[in-house]
Model the fold of this input.
Amino acid sequence: MTKIQAQTSIEVALARVNDILAGKDKVPDVSAVQISLLKSNLDAMLQNLIGCINLPLPLGANGMGHIIVDSWPFGTAAGDAIISAEAEYWKYLKSSPNARS
Done:
């Protein structure tokens, strides 16, 4: 897992979340609070990768996946992108000795 792969995955997930916020994509029964938390978490993950800083993640480790699995409909493009981004972010951090967790 490279930093670029993790960064790209996060950017795709952010684009999907922004589509939901802009009304271009509909995900039934998803609250504005969930979307806001997911966006904040993705933003912090991206900044941690780009800036090599250590912002706290509002949802902590694997918090996004729990939200998606527990309360989102299965098979949504945004949900799949978010889970993938989160997994790739943590894989990168675990595989890179210079990355911060």
